[in-house]
Amino acid sequence: MTDPGTQHPDSPRGLAGPHVAGTETASAAPPSLAEGCPSPARGPDGTRARPRRGIAAVGPRFLQVWYRNAFVFVKLWKTNLFPPLIEPYLYLLALGLGVGFYVSEIDGVDYLTFVAPGIIVTSAILQATFECTYGSYFRMSFQSTFDAIISTPVNPEEVSMGEICWGASRAALASGAIMVSLAAFGRLELIWAPVILALQFLVGMQFGALSLLITSKVRQTEYFNFFLSGIIFPAQMLTGAFFPLSRIPEVLQPIAWAVPLTSAIDLTRGIMLDRLGLHSLLELAYLIVATVVFMELALRNMRRRLIG
Amino acid sequence: MSNPPSATATQAPAGSAGSAAASASAASAAIAASAVVPEAAAPATSAAAIICSDLRKNYRDTVALAGVDLRVERGAVFGFLGPNGAGKSTLVKILTGLVHPSGGQGEVLGGKPGSRAVHRRLGYLPEQFRFPQWLTGRELLSLHGRLMGIEAEAARLLDLVGLGVAGDRKIGEYSKGMQQRLGLAQALVGDPELVFLDEPTSALDPIGRRDVRDILTHLRDRGMTVFLNSHLLTEVERVCDRLAVIDKGSVIAQGATEDLLQSPGLSVRVGELPQGSFEDFAARSWSEVAPPTYADGVITLPGVAADEVPAVVHRMVEAGLPVYEVTFARQSLEEAFVQLIREHHPGSDGRAGA
User: Fold this and answer.
1) pLDDT for res A88
2) Do B30 and B166 fall within a single domain?
3) Helices (DSSP H) in B149-205: which residue ranges?
4) Which residue among B259, B290, B307 closes a domain?
5) Chain A: closest CA distance from residue B103 (Å)
6) pLDDT at B311
7) Is there a contact between B259 and A142 if contact means CB atoms under 8 Å apart?
8) Mean pLDDT taken over chain B
9) Which of A258, B26, B133, B164 has a Cα at 20 to 30 A from A187?
10) Domain span holding position B277
């Protein structure tokens, strides 16, 4: 910036005296004044270019939002890593070794082998869900972090994408932790580990996006209870994670298959038990489509929530 | 751009949350040594940093802004006042791109509010900003620099706000005042041309406030424009060149600070008046203007300008009035603020959240 003495020959005091409403009007806005209300820029052909919204508005700066969250997380790694590392082991212990003791075989395999994919996926969705509900809400409403970020060149869509990716990263982290122990128990072939991890990242993106969509709508954290108790926990229980879908009434099975989580669990189980087929491709496609839809909705609604 | 001498950093005791005095000296020294705004920056595209014309915002049936006209010149420290719910935060959020207006026009640094080009040249300290307590001050600035797409000069900024020696301590160990100063440093990452500060001094002790005042004055001297939203009227009065008052979504006054503060005139404490001396003085000297009044040993002369005071006192002495004490009273910003609100809304108590 140049020296103020030369750059601003008209000092602030050079303006007219006090302007009191009703006695003097403010300076007329120059013709070039940008419209405060949405003012689409014009493209080279003179037509109005629609501003990019949703996924199309995401640029590489979302990685900086992801990095910020990751940096803060790593600073407290002892506290932050404890729950995702311990909780899946408790599930493994309780379901695999505890319940598994009474279940000799299920779906052609022992119970621990059957339930392991379910534990991997449910651990992933819970991590992504909590990160993009309570975590994002606190950063948005209580810490004003998003306000500070959006005042930089980072746009609302990039903030949201950074949050979703961070939720997915935590999902993959939790899944990775449980996969280590499953490999130790001989229930996982390491060659498939990267594929399963990538799949859990996708599942994390999906539930992170869904959770952020909910976050864009709630005005108090208490409302998350409806989402968690009404959608997440039932989905966790009734989508084949802990028992075969064939055990639920036939009339409800189409509904269960409509929930993308069912496809995620079945696909993960298919990879781990070498039961992949054409249906696996359909499941993967469904997961991707559902993720993109949730993401688009989340980004658009978060923009509305963040900047009106 | 010079870095402050390292000696200044070592003057402030490390870890002393309450050591505002020591940090004040560090801050002042840092201010003197630091160049906050680069000498060469993006060319100005408009004479004004902010122009609002009939800017409006409705939240369903609630009118938050009813057509705001505002102009903030570049290089000014601009104070923005108003009661709670008057629309201050809404306007700041519109200008920083955090809220879309319902209508009207706005321009920030010659561009559209909220555009990426404007955000690159903007600093913002949100109200009630909370920091991750386990980060250090230096890490926070570094992270914010990454979001800006630059490498933050954390050391210089920390020195500037008097946190040079506390930069590597966790924010959770900072006092409220230190956290507020860190927020100020964060808003200055990237050497913005315009910085919006929402209540930057609310948690500071008097010495901390003085530090912030010094910093703001320095920023103005370097050509930076500061938009200050504050409840603390005394701070605004001391540091702002110009100010605007908003009430119920409309700007009811704006202009130079001293022009908004009306002078009630001269107040002279006198001894026992000789018989008829006051009447004689009042009749001979001041019949052409608002007449002086006498009550409880004090003669009040309305409408006396500052440069007239010596002559007035001379006349009083000549008239035989025993002058003990002369006070040239100026309306405080708080008084002016309450008066403005009352005039705008008769019957209001002028309760000022400012």
Assistant:
1) 72
2) yes
3) 154-160, 176-187
4) B259
5) 5
6) 84
7) no
8) 78
9) A258
10) 265-329
Residues contacting residue A121 through CB under 8 Å, at least 6 positions apart: A175, A200, A203, A241, A261, A264, A265, A268
CATH assignment at residue B231? 3.40.50.300
- ipTM surpassing 0.90, yes or no? no
* B93 within domain boundaries: no
Statement to judge: residues B204 and B127 lie in one domain: yes
Backbone phi, psi, residue B53, to 5°: -135, 110
| B55 vs A contacts (CB less than 8 Å) | 36
- Angle, to 10 degrees, between the axis of helix A193-215 and the axis of helix A278-307? 30
Q: What is the pLDDT of residues A161-171, one digit of tens each?
A: 999 999 999 99
Phi-psi label, residue A77: left if phi above 0, alpha if psi -120 to 50, beta otherwise: alpha
B117 and B165 inside one domain? yes
Looking at chain B, which residue has its C-alpha nearest residue A1?
B41
Lowest-pLDDT range of A8-12, A278-282, B33-37: A8-12
Q: What is the total count of domains within chain B?
A: 2
Kindly report the nearest CA distance between residue B94 and chain A, in angstroms: 8
What share of chain A has pLDDT > 70, as a percent? 84
Residue in B146, B149, B255 nearest the CB of A19: B255
Q: Specify the pTM.
A: 0.71
Pick from A12, A17, A33: CB nearest B241 = A12
What is the predicted pLDDT for the residue at B115?
Answer: 87
Instruction: Please indicate, yes or no, if residue B67 is contained in any of the structural domains.
Output: no
CB B95 within 8 A of CB B50: yes
Do B240 and B302 reside in the same domain of the chain? Answer: no
Tally of CB atoms within 10 A around B300:
18
Last residue of a domain, one of B227, B259, B291: B259
Give yes or no: residues B167 and B312 share one domain: no
Over the stretch A280-298, which tens digit does the pLDDT of each residue have? 999 999 999 999 999 999 9
